């Protein structure tokens, strides 16, 4: 899915900002390959544009701060939404979960868990202390959550590009595959 979003912004003839990335807009095919869907509120930028203004139509919880408050969209809005989705997938907590109230939100909950308490936020079905290569797997999940936090930085200029996100995910996947091969 990350590669599709990166393609739309950096490689497609006209840059496309999805503007509403969230789990319900990601479909899995029979091979469990993710596909981005619902381009109803997406925006196309001119080649020389890196941002634009629009009405806010995205989903609360996944929306970048600058899009929600100012209607400012850029590729970094999709990066933000992608970071929230990463947190949700690996923690099994939605950004609007009832546990998040007051100053506690998904971002702060994940951030406060790093680096020493990451196990308390990772979905228990994904990792157990008795798993083989527990430490290596825990490091992988920590890397994913650190990446997600870099995606959801408040300022769009401080967020990673989707290209860097994709490269980082590929490196994390490679490490996971090496651990998996060691298990076999």
From TrEMBL:
Residues 1-177 form the Protein kinase domain. SMART domains: S_TKc. Keywords: ATP-binding, Cell membrane, Glycoprotein, Kinase, Leucine-rich repeat, Membrane, Nucleotide-binding, Phosphoprotein, Receptor, Repeat, Serine/threonine-protein kinase, Signal, Transferase, Transmembrane, Transmembrane helix. It is an enzyme of class 2 (transferase). It comes from Coffea arabica (Arabian coffee). This is non-specific serine/threonine protein kinase. It is a single-pass membrane protein. It catalyses: L-threonyl-[protein] + ATP = O-phospho-L-threonyl-[protein] + ADP + H(+); L-seryl-[protein] + ATP = O-phospho-L-seryl-[protein] + ADP + H(+). GO terms for cellular component: plasma membrane. Pfam families: Pkinase (PF00069). Its EC number is 2.7.11.1. It is found in: Cell membrane. Its main location: membrane. InterPro entries: Kinase-like_dom_sf, Prot_kinase_dom, Ser/Thr_kinase-like, Ser/Thr_kinase_AS. GO terms for molecular function: ATP binding; protein serine/threonine kinase activity.
């Amino acid at each position: 899915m990350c590669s599709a979003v990166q393609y739309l912004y950096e490689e497609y003839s006209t840059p496309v900002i999805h503007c509403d990335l969230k789990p319900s807009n990601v479909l899995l095919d029979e091979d469990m390959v993710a596909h981005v869907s619902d381009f109803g509120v997406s925006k196309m930028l001119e080649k020389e544009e890196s941002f634009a203004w629009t009405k806010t139509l995205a989903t609360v919880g996944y929306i970048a701060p600058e899009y929600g408050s100012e209607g400012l969209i850029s590729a970094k809005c999709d990066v933000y939404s992608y970071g929230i989705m990463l947190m949700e997938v690996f923690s099994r907590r939605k950004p609007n979960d009832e546990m998040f109230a007051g100053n506690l939100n998904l971002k702060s909950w994940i951030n406060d868990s790093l680096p020493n308490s990451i196990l308390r936020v990772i979905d228990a079905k994904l990792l157990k202390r008795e798993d083989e290569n527990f430490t290596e797997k825990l490091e992988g999940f920590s890397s994913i959550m650190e990446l997600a936090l870099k995606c959801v930085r408040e300022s769009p200029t401080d967020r990673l590009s989707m290209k860097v996100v994709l490269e980082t995910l590929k490196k994390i996947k490679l490490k996971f595959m090496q651990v998996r091969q060691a298990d076999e």
